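Example record used in the benchmark description.
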Amino acid sequence: MKTSSNAALDRFRPVTILKSDHFSSVTRGFWRTDKGEAEAVLRRFDNVAWWTRPIARFFARNEIRALERLGDSGVGPVLLARGEGFLVRSWVEALPLHLAAPKGDDEFFRNAKRLLRTMRHAGVVHNDLAKQQNWLRDMEGKPRVTDFQLAAVSKKRGRMFRIAAREDLRHLLKHKRMYCPQSLTATEKRMLSEKSLPARIWMATGKRVYNFVTRKLLGYMDREGSGIDAIVAAPKIAQRILEHPLVRAAAVLPYPSPRGALLYAFIESASSPSEGDLRNHLRAVSLPMPSLVQFVKQLPRRNDGAVREDILRIIAQNHIELLDLISLDEETRRLTAELVEGRLNRTDRPLRGLT
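Model output (structure tokens):
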């Protein structure tokens, strides 16, 4: 499985840059095999700054060891190749948890607990499952896990391993509390209220250092913590916006930023109100103005007339490549392409499949 970097790059056909940070670049594309091409992801950590290279190699080594141990168990992606400065893993057709938003889906969380048991029996703990983007929901509604850069592998599964495995489960239960609170058992509620000693020490010490380094020094942002306040406020703000006489439809969704979870409003209006007018409209009932407001003539809708918040959520999160996973009719695709073209949280990610 281990091969040279040049050989891997020759066999990998890049399509979309998914991510690039201080520790690696991640590119979606196709991996050529004897049986043809398969969708895959290339992570390169040989093209980072010298001062982050030791950490980048540590992260990559963790991911490689975990994926090798898990194999094709169905927990997450399969390791296809590794070499000096790179790894290639299979592509998983799935949406991140914060975009899939499995509200009321008890079966998803039951299967997720089984997935964690499979990981534990294989001697793998993830150590980064507080982030919703590391949980996936595939096209069959089943859970998968990705991004094993902080994972640990243990043959003996000693005390520290068991504590880490418990934390993986506790983080899953935090997500279950958000999407299926009615299904939490008494035991699960008790586990949520009982952090392990290492977790309490981390929250009081190391977590603060981690946040300072990643967010302030490196400018890295993620969805850990989910921005509960923003999520709770979003539907109230959307409802108030809908009461404006010039507004026909609206959706307000959270998106991550270095300042935490902010709000992105999509507003359908034939004659758009000014942002000042909208701000006063919200201020009258003590609601904040969303950080980003995109006015459009028409929002994509389902057959029953409901706004397609699944599409808007992907655009708000700026995960445009995930739109490829959603089946869209011609009219919805046209409206989606217009939304993507006019989005207000642009990055340099190339687009595919919307033209």
